[in-house]
Design brief:
Distance between the termini: 35 Å
Number of helices: 2
Structural class: mainly beta
Helix content: under 10%
Strand content: over 45%
Length: about 425
C-alpha cells in the first residue's frame, strides 16, 4: 500500500511475548537463490547451498497470506511452491491489545492491477481464562469485508480458533459477488516432543473474494489470484523430537479452486540426526500445481563433519528423472574475531547436469555486514553480493551499525577506544556530527 499506518509493534516486547513466524523447508539441487513472496511482494531473499535448507528467521508482513517460495538454481531453472500461512491458532496474552489501522492506495505488485483507495482495521485482544477475541474490516469503493473470530487455549487439548469473514465485491462488468469464508486453526505441543505447529482448514463460498483477488479480477491483472479462485485449503505441520536420535518433520498442504479442477499440493518430510559430532539429514519434497502436468520430486542427503574450526560437508540430491548432483566442500570462520565466514563447494552432476562449484564469503564488521559469492555450472557463471547495515542519528552524531531490528542502546564513553560489549564484536561505530 501507499498511505499511512498506525500499528502495535511487537519489537517493543520481549522475545517470549512475540508472535509466530513459519518455518520454510525445501531442497536445493545446487547453489540457489531462495525468494519468499507474500501478497506479490518479496519479503525474504537468501542464497543456500545444495541440499535441504530451512528458513527460520522469516517475518511475514501480515498475519495471513500464502507464501510463494521460489528456488532459483544456478543453471537458471526454478522450483516454485506455495506454503499457505496463517498465524498459529490466533491467541493474545490476557490484557494485551494488538491492532493495526491503515489507509491509502492499494498496490498489488502486478504491473496492470488497479490501485483502489481503501481503509483497513484489525484488532486482537486477550481476555481472561485463555480467550482471545479478534476481528477486522476492509472498506473500499468496490469492496468491503467484515471478519470476527474467537480463540481459546484449552490447555492439555491445545489452542483452537474459529473465525468467519463476510465479503461483498464488485467485479468486472459491475457484477456484484457476495460470500463467506470460514477458518479453523489448531495447535498443540506434547510432552513427548510432538509439536503440531499448525493444523488448519479454510473454506470459502463461490462468491467470496479477498480484497486482493477482487482487485485483480476486476482489473484483469496478470496474477495467480485472477487465474485461480480459491475454494478450500488444508494444512498441517508436525515435528517430533527424538531426543538423542534427532528429530523428524512432516508438512503437507492442499489448495483447491472454484474455477479449476486441479489442486495445489505440497509435501515435505525429513529427518535430522547426529552421530557423535557428525550431523546428517535426509529430506524429501513433492510439489504439484494446477498449471504443471508433472509433479516435482526431490530427495536429498546431507552430512557435515567438524575438523577444528573447519566443517567438511557433503550433499546429494536426486530428482524424479534420475538427475543426481553431488557436492563436497568446506566451510568455517577466519580472522581474529571469527567474523569472516567462508564456504567452498565443488560438485558433479549426472545425466547432463554437469560440474559446478561456488565460493562464498560473509563478513560481519563494525559498521555493517557484506557478502560476496561466486558460482559456476555448465550454463555459465554468477556473482552475487550484498551490503547490510543500520544508521542511527542522535544528539552525539551518527552511529553506523549492523542491521537494526530489536531493542538497542547507545553508550557514550568519551576518551575510550571502541571495544566489544557482551561479546558482540560488531556493536557499531560512531561518526562525530
Amino acid at each position: 500500500m501507499r498511505g499511512v499506518q498506525l500499528t502495535s509493534d511487537e519489537e517493543m516486547l520481549p522475545d517470549s511475548q512475540r508472535g509466530f513466524a513459519p518455518v520454510i523447508r525445501g531442497i536445493a539441487k545446487s547453489n540457489a537463490e531462495v525468494t519468499v513472496e507474500q501478497n506479490n511482494y518479496v519479503i525474504y531473499r537468501t542464497f543456500v547451498q545444495p541440499g535441504a535448507f530451512e528458513i527460520n528467521d522469516l517475518y511475514p508482513t501480515s498475519n495471513s497470506g500464502d507464501l510463494t517460495v521460489t528456488i532459483k538454481e544456478s543453471d537458471g531453472s526454478e522450483q516454485k511452491f506455495v506454503q499457505p500461512f496463517s498465524s498459529v491458532a490466533l491467541l493474545q496474552r490476557e490484557g494485551h491489545l494488538k491492532y493495526s489501522l491503515s489507509a491509502g492506495e492499494y498496490r498489488a505488485g502486478n504491473y496492470n492491477s488497479a490501485e483502489p483507495k481503501f481503509g483497513q482495521l484489525d484488532a486482537m485482544y486477550g481476555l481472561p481464562y485463555g480467550f482471545t477475541v479478534y476481528g477486522g474490516a476492509i472498506f473500499s469503493d468496490d469492496y468491503y469485508s467484515l471478519a470476527g473470530g474467537l480463540g481459546k487455549n484449552f490447555g492439555y487439548i491445545g489452542a483452537i480458533s474459529i473465525d468467519v469473514t463476510q465479503a461483498k465485491s464488485k467485479l468486472a462488468n459491475e457484477e456484484n459477488s457476495e460470500g463467506q469464508s470460514y477458518r479453523f486453526l489448531y495447535s498443540k505441543s506434547f510432552n513427548s516432543g510432538t509439536d503440531f505447529r499448525l493444523l488448519g482448514y479454510k473454506y470459502s463460498t463461490s462468491g467470496y473474494y479477498t480484497f486482493q483477488e477482487a482487485t485483480d479480477v476486476r482489473s484483469d491483472a496478470d496474477s495467480s489470484y485472477s487465474q485461480y479462485h480459491k475454494r478450500s485449503q488444508i494444512q498441517g505441520n508436525v515435528t517430533q523430537q527424538l531426543g538423542a536420535w534427532g528429530s523428524v518433520y512432516f508438512n503437507v498442504t492442499q489448495q483447491d479452486y472454484w474455477n479449476d479442477e486441479g489442486k495445489q499440493r505440497s509435501l515435505n518430510a525429513g529427518y535430522n540426526g547426529r552421530i557423535g559430532r557428525v550431523n546428517y539429514s535426509v529430506a524429501y519434497t513433492w510439489t504439484k500445481s494446477p498449471e504443471w502436468d508433472e509433479s516435482d520430486r526431490l530427495l536429498s542427503f546431507s552430512m557435515s563433519i567438524p575438523l577444528g574450526r573447519v566443517w567438511s560437508n557433503y550433499h546429494l540430491t536426486t530428482d524424479q528423472h534420475g538427475r543426481t548432483n553431488q557436492q563436497l566442500g568446506v566451510s568455517g570462520t577466519a580472522l581474529e574475531d571469527h567474523n569472516l565466514n567462508y564456504s567452498v563447494q565443488e560438485g558433479y552432476g549426472s545425466n547432463g547436469v554437469g560440474n559446478s562449484g561456488s565460493v562464498n564469503l560473509d563478513y560481519q564488521g563494525g559498521v555493517g555486514s557484506a557478502s560476496l559469492g561466486y558460482n559456476y555450472n555448465r550454463d555459465g557463471q554468477q556473482v552475487n553480493y550484498g551490503l547490510r547495515g543500520g544508521v542511527i542519528a542522535h544528539s552525539e552524531g551518527i552511529t553506523l551499525s549492523q542491521p537494526l531490528g530489536e531493542s538497542m542502546a547507545i553508550i557514550s564513553a568519551p576518551g575510550r577506544a571502541r571495544r566489544a560489549r557482551d561479546q558482540q564484536r560488531w556493536c557499531g561505530s560512531g561518526l562525530d556530527g
